[in-house]
Amino acid sequence: MSAVELVGLRKSYADVTVLDDLSLRANQGELVTLLGPSGCGKTTTLRCIAGLERAERGEIHIAERLVACPERRVFLPANRRDIGMVFQSYALWPHMSVFGNVAYPLRVRGRDRRERHRAVMEILELVGMDSYAKRQVTELSGGQQQRVALARAMVARPAVLLFDEPLSNLDAKLRREMRREIRDAHDRSGGTSIYVTHDQEEAMTLSDRIVVIRGGKIQQVGTPREIYTEPATRFVADFIGFENLLDATVTEVRDGATGVRLASAAGPVWTSKGISRAPGTQVVLAARADALEIGPLGSPGSPGDGRAAGAAMHGVIRSRSYAGGRVEYLVAASGAQVVVRAPEAGAAALLDVGSQASVRFPADAAVLVADDSPAPSPQAAAPAVEPVPFQGAPDARSPMS
Amino acid sequence: MAEIVLGPASSHTPQPRVTGPRRLVSPALILLCLLSLGLFVWPVVMLGYGAFRTAPPGFGHATWSASGFTATLSNGAVWHAFANSLILSGCTVLISTALAVYLAWTVARTATPLRQVVTPMAVLIFAIPPLFYALSWAMLGEQPVGLVDKALHAVFGVAPLNIQSWFGMIGVSVLGATAAEYLLLLGPFRALDPAFEEASLVCGATRLRSFFQIELPALAPSILGVMILGFVLGMGLLTVPLLLGEPAGIYVLPTAIYRDYQAVTPPDYAGASTLALMLVAMVLILVALQTRLLGRRSFTTVTGKGSRRERLDIGWRKWLGTAVILIYGLLALVLPLGQFVLGSLESYFGVYSHLSLSNYSTVLHASGTGSAFETTLLVAVVAGFGASAMGVWVALTAQRSASRLRRLPDLSVWVLWAVPGITLSLGLIWAYLSVPGLRSLYATQWIVLLALIVGTTPIASRAVAGPIGQISRDLEEAARTAGASGLRATVGILLRLILPAFVVSWFITGIVSSGNLDIPILLASPSNQTVPLLAYNQFNDGSLAQAAATFCLLIGIVAAALALAAAIRLMLRLPARLPGRSR
Fold first, then answer.
1. Cβ contact, residue pair A83, B202, below 8 Å
2. Cross-strand bridge partners of residue A256
3. Total of domains in chain B
4. Rounded to a whole number, what is the distance in Å from the CA of A147 to chain B's nearest CA?
5. End residue of a domain, out of B498, B530, B562
6. Is the pLDDT score of A168 beyond 90?
7. Around B316, how many Cα atoms within 13 Å sit in the side-chain half-sphere?
8. CA–CA distance, B414 with B461 (Å, rounded to integer)
9. Is the pTM of this model over 0.80?
10. Taking CB atoms and an 8 Å limit, are A95 and B201 in contact across chains?
């Protein structure tokens, strides 16, 4: 049974298309995350589900009930959709106490006083805020406000919970803590949740399924593991934190594996992950910095000794920095730059900036993805995809020893 | 302005205080404190003093006596006037606030056609002095020759409307008060996080329910603040009751004060002061009430993270909003202005044939006119500048000084809110007559000027406190670390950033000063009367057409100033928009 279903949703502001034929299903009990850069349409999608914005075309079903369909002139306003929502700004009403805020959905639904009290205290206890019931919401800290907003969204046991970047105003530590609490609350409620975020780590740890959106279009839908290990397109790979995206040409397809040639590498790179294309096709080889190996030029194993060791690429080390237990190198090969993070193996094993090095691509270390640049929509190109920060020292030029 | 609370202007703009060793009290601060006490607190103190003296100040042989005080308080007519004041002010505030809330909501949140004209219209109405409203509506409803009166006659055969009545007084007061309250409420309505309403809708509440249970209560501090301010100003309202109430035998406290002072010989100083004290007591009770109702609670979280939203489509009801805007514009601007222009062209008021400019030539050639315009211009420009400079000084001190005394000037200015309109004039007379040097200023234009500076400083300090509070201390500190001296950082960075707010404040206080009648009516002498006083006297003498011509000239000058300001603003903005120059 699908709790939320979107079919062919379309919306535009003036002449900018915000949602472009977007279809999506969230099953009962699932927590689905809409992930994408700012301006990609994820929040608009959420607000359309909530009934706070109207799409121009398409259908929205909540709990098997059609709630919006402009073609058939169906539009159920937000207050009749049986939903709960946590806002980015929390939107706690400043003239009401914690109790008053959380009790409001029940008051609106006409529940009697005693039941209201019981349900509110129960949910406040669940989020650990029962001792704050009489406080004014303006006296609470960010994390506490977050908990109250969560309790208010859940108290009436709505069919669907909607989250609009609820953790973006919290600091990193609190964010991790609240992430767990939101997941707990979702599991206990047994309902369906749609969660909007631009933070890939948040999406990974929280979701049952992730929907990556760009320019109002769905790029990929999958479990966190699928998205993390096998992104479908260059955009998803980049957004999900693949440091190396290299243009490549398919040369050979054998035994379910594909061999590709990089512009600057000797010999083919083999991988069975990702898309499969006929020889001669242009693709993108996506590799995480941790999956590659690096050694001085001419070190043992560096010549291409078949598929197991992987092909090597020669280049000059441009910078070296410490990255918390690992060493990060930026290597410039002809026409491409490659980031490699190698285990820290003592000062003697360090490669010097300016020296020649060889970067190896072990088999299945990289993923073949479709080349989808340029951006499909003009507004998707503008907001920069937030760069995934390298862990550790940011200054790549500082000498290490 | 997210909150309107009748209190010291700077209390809602927290700034990081200077930490470290407490600075010594500077000579400038001492000067400002003395000046504040002398200008703002002294007149209020003297008002209380005057209620218990047998003779006006400066006339040596006065003694202490409670007889004037008790005689006034035991006079039934006084309490009647007091009750009338409450009724007038209360009704005006209730109606105008409802209207202002509706207009502010319409403009801030809905897609109502014509919503764009409301703010310019309100600014214009605010710029037109209350005396003008009182005069023009007195003319509009004049039986049987006023425009409205004639129109009603034509439609109904009889005119059911007598403007010189409770109905007229409240109606005309509402027209002016609505514009001011709307301007104060628009900011809070715009600043209210749209997510508040959305959260309520998502919870299952309807739009209407969300409006009354969420949006309105969340804005309650602002609305209550505006209501109390409106009530205080309503209690001090002189012109409307003078022109529309008195002829119908309705007295309110300000008109009673004026009559005690002006119409009785010798003036009943103690009586007038006692009446003024009643007004002050009323205001203080209101402020205490507000503090008690709101406590220390702050709803400043109304400004959430700005989220984009579409304007509400409220269906056919938006046309209701358009109709309200049109009717309001007609009653508050078109009719009064039309009547004035028409009236000024009539050879005798009410005679619609033979329209000519003869009134203008009569007015322009009359001996007092030139000097009245000169005085008004001087007084408006200088008083506006003085009040704004004072406001900046007071606000800067309250927000930036490290001394314990920093709040004193701000509190002193705040005291003035308790003495609306003519009460202040009375207090100023007592205050200045009691000081030997200042006594010689009596009946000169300088005393009018000084009184207007004092009277408009509360407005100025309100207008500049917000913008000054928003200027981050980092900006000055950045200048200091860049090598600028303290003086240079203050002048080059701080004052430069304050300048726009200062100019706006100068403009507002200048316009308010130019139309003020409460102060010149008690303080000016015939030789240095201002334009409002001149027009009022012409009206009293029955020369309605000439009064209209006089006022049309003043409105023309004010309108020209407004247009000039708008043009300058446009010109300053244009270069940034030109292609190639935008960075």
1. yes
2. none
3. 2
4. 15
5. B530
6. no
7. 0
8. 9
9. no
10. no
